[in-house]
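User: Reviewer 2 asked us to show a designed sequence for the structure in our supplementary figure. I'm pasting the structure tokens here. Could you produce the per-position amino acids so we can include them in the response letter?
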């Protein structure tokens, strides 16, 4: 599986650290040049902001760095599309990788059919788990939405896998949106 690492040119120490760790694990990877949104003029920021549809994803105002991060992930997705890749692993340069990371990559390659909903659901679960881990590693408390999202995507992925359900895109969206609504309502209640 192709592994992309998003990295800003000025973050050489981060790149060296993640490169050393991936080499230690025997994982080949490619660098994706990260976009520094502080270098964008206001017109470019507005264009990117509207193109990414950030308003769909969050009710909070975007803070410095988030737009560049999202744009950088779009570059990785563009690289996947340009090369005809159905599946790839996209990492940021501050990732902390478990010793069994190569096993997880092999498992994904062997077991997940990119045409099935489980790929998106397990990817969503993985991202949410990474966000929870990042909060814990920085000594912050875990947010209900992040923990709930990890559980929701993981449970839906397991359901689709175990039941061999052939969900349509609309079915996946409905299940995810209903679950996220429930998580938001629970977080408001507590």
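Assistant: Here is a per-position design you can include in the supplement:
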């Amino acid at each position: 599986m192709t592994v992309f690492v998003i990295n800003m040119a000025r973050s050489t120490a981060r790149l060296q650290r993640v490169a050393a760790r991936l080499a230690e694990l025997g994982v080949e990877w490619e660098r994706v040049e990260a976009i520094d949104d502080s270098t964008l003029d206001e017109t470019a920021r507005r264009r990117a902001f509207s193109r990414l549809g950030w308003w769909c994803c969050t009710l909070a105002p975007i803070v410095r760095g988030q737009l560049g991060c999202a744009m950088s992930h779009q570059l990785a997705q563009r690289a996947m599309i340009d090369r005809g890749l159905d599946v790839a692993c996209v990492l940021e340069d501050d990732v902390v990788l478990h010793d069994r990371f190569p096993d997880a990559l092999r498992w994904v390659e062997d077991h997940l059919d990119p045409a099935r909903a489980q790929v998106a659901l397990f990817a969503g679960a993985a991202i949410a788990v990474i966000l929870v881990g990042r909060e814990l590693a920085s000594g912050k408390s875990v947010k209900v939405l992040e923990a709930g999202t990890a559980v929701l995507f993981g449970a839906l992925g397991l359901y689709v896998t175990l039941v061999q359900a052939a969900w349509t895109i609309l079915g996946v969206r409905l299940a995810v949106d209903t679950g996220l609504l429930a998580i938001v309502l629970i977080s408001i209640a507590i």
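For the response letter, you might also mention the following. The first helix runs from residue 12 to 25. The longest strand covers residues 2-7.
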